[in-house]
Write a structure and sequence with these properties.
Rossmann fold; binds adenosine monophosphate; 8-stranded mixed β-sheet; 5-stranded mixed β-sheet; alpha+beta; BirA Bifunctional Protein, domain 2; 429 residues
Length: 429
Amino acid sequence: MAAPTFRAPKGTRDILPPESARRRALVDRFAAAAALSGFGELVSPIFEDLGVFQRIGEATDVVTKEMFDFFDKGDPPQHLALRPELTASVCRAFAEHRPVAPWKVWYEGPQFRYEQPQAGRYRQFTQVGVEVLGTDDPQADVDVIALAARFFESIGLGRVHLSINSLGDATCRPAYLDALTAHFHEHHDRLSAQSQVTLERNPLRVLDSKRPQDQEIIDAAPVMVDFLGADTGAHFDAVRAGLDSLGIGYDISPRLVRGLDYYTRTTFEFAADALESAQNAVGGGGRYDGLVEDLGGPPTPGIGFALGVDRILLACDAEEAFAPPRTAVSVFVVDVTGGGRALDVCERLRGVGIGADRSYGGRSMKAQMKVADRSGARFAVIIGEDEVAAGEVTLRDLRGDGGQRRVAADALVDEVRPPTPLSTIDEDT
Ligand code: AMP
């Protein structure tokens, strides 16, 4: 019987080299940027008690339709779920460990949502993000938004734009929700069937509808920024003033309500104009002043964002930005004397931090040179019987003019070591 063929599950994918190296470099770049802004990494479990994620909001698709949940083998079994996002886990960790506030953490890792897969929308995808817990200073909002904006800039994405909004808070939002609900009820019969259902569950989410039939009614709807109270209004003004002072461009988007229910005050989103508009959100976040408390912690304000790594890389493709890093292998050893010498030379080079690789199986010089050319290495080190007899190796430049010369075997490390300071080795190896 033929063995069954397996494929990666629907909505998931394998990321192979060299794309995986590019993805890793992007995450590393984010980690470095977050560290420069004083964030430490939080590594938390990929699954949590389902209840942690239910705090995100009972009316959101992420919770009601998209959760990968399961029971463990305990007695009684525990109802767990793969994380669909990380803010709830960060707040759970804060409530559990009670670190000194403000607590500034960054994270990276896979998230899981049972969505209908399409370009840029997967069931497993990677996010990087930050959260600041324990301050409601609007300058924290500015700092966090600036970190994301600088990150996009640093990877060469030029066509990303920032939209911001304020969702008010528990004091001023009810009046807005009343006005919004009244408006939608007034035009109820003209709303799409889906939006009529959404309206009953959460009127704010109707603003999210992309269905053409709803647009005129949405455009005429009241906007939250007109209902902000003194506090939330001052907070929003301060965020805008901070962004202005840093020269970070944005537009105010009164319809930006975002998918998750827990946001209060500042919300924001980054969209990549180079991507199709249905999947052009490359990141977003906002302030959530009640989530830690909902998870059993003390009242703690928070602000953060999550960026979608998969989509950022699609945007980079579209803008021809952020090329894969060069291979770490700078020397390819071609040994036509049997292979044992390649073993020694590779080990010697790797031992002093110089990337080295080789072929296996005692192949011909021509075959080995072909692999060397493909490897992306800067040098080929060729070892034949002649070289061995002379205590030398042949060093061939694979990137420049292809010239070659003999060097003493003992001097090889110095010959291939990049002549540049450590900080620029990446470009040179
Ligand atoms: P959210 O947690 O929904 O605010 O999403 C934050 C970012 O994660 C979005 O802006 C996207 O870039 C990315 N993202 C969300 N859902 C998916 C998905 N299903 N597939 C790929 N990326 C996603």
